[in-house]
Design goal:
Helix 1 crosses helix 2, helix 1 crosses helix 3 and helix 5 packs across helix 8. Helices cover 29% and strands 26% of the residues. Strand 14 and strand 15 form a beta hairpin. It is an alpha+beta fold. It contains ten helices and 20 strands. The chain has three domains: 206 residues, no CATH class; 64 residues, no CATH class; 92 residues, PH-domain like, CATH 2.30.29.
Length: 414
């Protein structure tokens, strides 16, 4: 943590504490009226700082944590939030978060977390590093167990249940349904010292894991399927495909196959049986499809093309628009961006990371440069991330096919 950050922290803490009595009633009202969320209040030592670890399901998750803790909580957040000029400066002034670069080893952020913990504040990290697209908990970096032991604070595990039913990452609609959030376990500092990092990781996975690829209630909205194409880019009938959604239905533009998204989260075929019952099953099948690609089929021709705006990100500062519209072409080994004014090629072997932000923004990290693609509301950024990680895994000769679980499946970015 920088000296400037240390100097700002006491003042930020005071502002944060003053905001809680004012903002908490408003936040609680939104949680009840919009999300229909029941948040269980945390029972713990009032003056004890904690390391809070949460699963990440909705855009409101951080507010649920503050509602439960009723104290200042300092969050580790995506650097994208801190690269938006005045808005970012306001967030920094009010809440003093720790920004971190997704999918990149960010030693600056790690050191900031450790230093912030030493100042005696409560920290919150989403160890998935991503909101789930599928409904089940994403990959959790195994380094979190070691980091928790280095920090040394009691670890409080905060799980959100039903959030995917209420607001899937790929959707703009907030459904009418029920969800709840609360702490599942607290690992004391003494207990933490006795545990090995692998044991801490196992406890974290157990305390945070959620799989909503099941019927867990009714979640009503007249646009339940809208923008599911932000998540899916394969069709069980024709392979790689583009979907277009409207209301509660979506259609494959290649073969015309149609699906309906139900109030119970089940998917059914409109014109015949559909092999996936839930979005999570479709997501898993899609990953298996990508894992089966041999890496040569889409070298001479693109698997996908999209139109998007191109921005250059000045990390922790602002974004500068480079082109209003570029053609993005996704190949097995690269991403090509072209317009009348520019041509840029990001070969995966020379690219540090590709990651999805928010619902469908794409960041490309290449050396000191960070580029962001912002497509239409139907733009699917996920496929670029999956193709990038599959290429990296193939180049590593299978050595990177780890850490998605005990089955040895590839990690495809989420």
């Amino acid at each position: 943590m920088s000296e400037d950050k240390k100097a700002l922290l006491p003042a930020a803490d005071k502002r944060f504490r003053r905001l809680i009595p004012i903002g908490l009633p408003l936040v609680s009202a939104v949680a009840r009226w919009v999300y229909h969320a029941r948040v269980e209040r945390f029972v713990g030592e009032p003056d004890q700082p904690y390391l809070v670890l949460m699963n990440h399901v909705t855009v409101w998750d951080q507010f649920f944590v503050v509602m439960a803790m009723r104290r200042p909580v300092y969050f580790v957040i995506s650097e994208d939030f801190m690269s938006n000029g005045f808005t970012s400066r306001l967030i920094e002034y009010l809440f003093a978060p720790v920004p971190i670069r997704k999918q990149v080893t960010d030693l600056r952020a790690v050191m900031g977390v450790v230093e912030l913990a030493k100042s005696g504040v409560t920290l919150c990290i989403a160890p998935e590093g991503n909101r789930t697209y599928s409904g089940h908990t994403c990959h959790i970096n195994p380094a979190i167990g070691k980091l928790a032991k280095i920090i040394g604070l009691p670890v409080a595990l905060f799980r959100i249940d039903g959030g995917y039913g209420v607001q899937p990452r790929w959707s703009d609609a907030v459904r009418r349904g029920r969800m709840k959030a609360g702490f599942t376990r607290v690992i004391s500092a003494e207990e933490l010292k006795k545990m090995k990092p692998a044991e801490v990781n196992a406890a974290i996975r157990e305390g945070l894991y959620e799989n909503e690829a099941a019927v867990t209630g009714r979640f009503r909205h007249h646009k339940s399927a809208e923008y599911i194409e932000r998540m899916v880019y394969t069709c069980p009938s024709c392979g790689l495909a583009k979907w277009v959604s409207r209301g509660n239905e979506a259609r494959c533009t290649r073969c015309g196959r149609r699906i309906r998204y139900g109030e119970d989260k089940r998917i059914e075929g409109v014109d015949g049986l559909f092999p996936y019952r839930f979005a999570g099953e479709w997501y898993d099948a899609q990953e298996r499809f990508v894992m089966a690609l041999d890496g040569t089929e889409y070298v001479d021709r693109p698997a996908f093309t999209d139109e998007a705006g191109l921005w250059r990100v000045k990390l922790y500062d602002r974004k500068e628009r480079v082109e209003r519209n570029v053609r993005a072409a996704l190949y097995s080994d690269r991403i090509e961006l072209t317009s009348p004014a520019i041509t840029r090629v990001f070969r995966f072997e020379e690219t540090d990371a590709v990651t999805v932000l928010g619902q469908n923004k794409l960041n490309i990290y290449a050396g000191e440069d960070v580029w962001q693609l912002k497509g239409s509301k139907r733009f699917n950024a996920l496929k670029y991330v999956n193709f990038f990680f599959h290429a990296k895994n193939m180049a590593a000769g299978g050595e990177a096919r780890t850490q998605k679980g005990t089955d040895g499946a590839e990690f495809l970015g989420l």
